[in-house]
Amino acid sequence: METVDVAIVGAGFGGIGLGVRLGQSGYDSFAVFDRDEGPGGTWRANTYPGLSCDIPSHLYSFSFAPNPDWTHRYSPQEEILAYLERLVDEHGLRERLRPRTEVRSARFDSDARRWRVDTTAGEVEARVLVAACGQLSNPYVPRFAGLEDFEGPYWHSSRWDHDFDLRGKRVAVVGTGATSIQIVPALAGVAGRLDVFQRSAPYVVPRGDRAYTRAERRALRRFDLLRRLYRAKTFLRQESFIFGFSPGSPLHKPLTRWAQNHFEEQVTDPELRARLTPDYAIGCKRVLISDDYYPAMQRPDVELVSEPIDRFVPEGIRLRDGSVRELDAVVFATGFANAGAGGPDAGRGGGRPHARRAVGGRPARASRDDRGGHAQPVPDLRPQHEPGPQLGAVHAGVPVQLHRRVSRQPAAARPRDPRGAARGDGGVRRPRAAAAARLGLGRRLHVLVQERRRADREQLGSARPAATGWPRGARG
Ligand SMILES: Cc1cc2nc3c(=O)[nH]c(=O)nc-3n(C[C@H](O)[C@H](O)[C@H](O)COP(=O)(O)OP(=O)(O)OC[C@H]3O[C@@H](n4cnc5c(N)ncnc54)[C@H](O)[C@@H]3O)c2cc1C
Question: Best of 384, 398, 402 to mutate for ligand 1, by most ligand atoms within 8 A of CB?
Answer without folding.
Answer: 398
